[in-house]
Write a structure and sequence with these properties.
Layout (H helix, E strand, L loop, with lengths): L3 E3 L1 E3 L2 E3 L5 E6 L4 E7 L3 H18 L4 H17 L1 H12 L3 H4 L3 H16 L6 E4 L2 E9 L2 E5 L5 H14 L3 E5 L7 H11 L7 E3 L4 H9 L5 E5 L2 H13 L3 E5 L5 E4 L5 H10 L14 E5 L3 H12 L20 H16 L3 E4 L18 E4 L6 H4 L6 E7 L2 H8 L7 E5 L3 H10 L4 E4 L18 E2 L6 H6 E8 L9
Parallel strand pairs: 1-5, 8-9, 8-11, 9-10, 11-12, 13-14, 13-18, 14-17, 16-17, 18-19
Antiparallel strand pairs: 2-3, 4-5, 6-7, 7-21, 12-20, 15-16
Bound molecules: nicotinamide-adenine-dinucleotide (NAD).
Nicotinamide-adenine-dinucleotide binds next to helix 8 and helix 9.
Amino acid sequence: MTLYQIRNFIDGKLQPGNGVAMTTLNPANNEVLASGFESTAGDVDAAVKAARKGLAVWKATPSAQRARVLFKAAQILRDRNDELALVETRDTGRAIQETEIVDVVSGVECLEYFAGVAGSITGEHIDLAGNFAYTRREPVGVCAAIGAWNYPIQIACWKAAPALACGNAVVYKPSEVTPLSAIAVAQALQEAGLPDGVYNVVQGARECGAALVEHPGVDKVSLTGSAQTGAKVASVAAGGMKAVTMELGGKSPMIVFEDADLDNAVSGAQMANFYSSGQICSNGTRVFVHESVKDAFLEKLVARSNTLVLGDPEKPETQVGPIVSKTQFDTIMSYIEIGKKEGATVVLGGEAVSENMPKGGYYVAPTVFADCTDDMTIVREEIFGPVMSVLTFKTEEEAIRRANDTEYGLAAGVFTRDLSRGHRVVAQLEAGTCWINTYNITPIEMPFGGVKKSGVGRENSRAAIDHYTRVKSVYVETGDVEAPY
Ligand code: NAD
């Protein structure tokens, strides 16, 4: 039974796309969850045209009014937390005990944060000894935003909130795997008073995203997705000299020194690998443990992870839900097989689970590989599933060198009781976001983003303002024009 409809939101109106039919499945049981139609290039064009019209209105709207709209939309979404958490759980397969406390909440906090920031987006005054210059921070224009499937409403808000606070208009394309909650954001913004055309949603897969990125009416592209997609999207955007923010994949390291509080390190490693069934971009999937504490670490890790409750994500007791789709499930299972073949030792999980699970769902047991080496495929490539690789090291210098030996640079974590060492090590790690004695905490006040192939630009915090505004310089002459002619 189809529970939900997949629709576009263009110029303030919900409408079906004009393209081919699309459906999504509930990953918990493989039943059809939502159906509708993909957007055509014509739908994308209509959305961009609506956004250009909306932009003219919104950029002329005083910042206090922009802030009021964002605050009100935040409250509307907060009031719908439980209903939207259920939508996210059905769309992504992530456990309801996560979506009820994280997804809408983190999206709303972003709207509230940027509502608060809206009034303080200013240029600067530059004294030039008699004359002066000033800068204006102006909106970039129409922002194309494209999302991944793991945290749909959070990603939608992380892009919408800073863009709208700065006076931009947005055309958002959610992942074709999770198309539902973007519309809830659009409706909340509309109810809160956002003028028609300022926030639009188009539905579809790669072709729809590509049409959006290529559209000459788009001034900036913000993508959350894989490094491969990021490279393609950034190169197309470069053709039109469009600004980009790229939030891409990772293979992040988590280093556990011999003096670490091992219980905390185990909690960190679990959060860094099993939360959201491991489908988090910043996950610390390469866990480097000092050789002197490896056995103790693994013993605690396995004992505590053995009790994780895998199952139907709508049940409140479930801690680990299914994988989002068959494609992703197959990818993860093939990496697990490769890990076994290349000689890593399975100390936990290592298999798909169907017994006592809802029929048809894509369940993978939380998996820990020990005895991993740096050259193994599971240690080098992003898996995006509940698969942890544990490696050992002897010295601090070695841990840093091996942690940095990756083409990615999204995040990194260090567990140590020696705070000097903590700061010294993170200063040398090639990653956009680091944690000392915790993992995967991303408060809205802290910039988030990657280096190397993990992306460019930053989301969240005041840093995002730089990526949703452009600076105009204005020189003011207070005297006569000095002309040599
Ligand atoms: P994906 O790259 O397959 O797709 C991401 C989005 O891009 C989707 O909406 C897709 O339709 C669209 N797309 C694909 N090809 C396109 C093209 N040529 N032009 C325009 N749009 C195109 O990624 P995914 O499978 O949805 O998500 C998983 C990936 O996202 C992982 O690599 C993960 O690490 C990454 N991710 C990164 C962050 C972050 O903040 N850094 C957050 C979540 C996920």
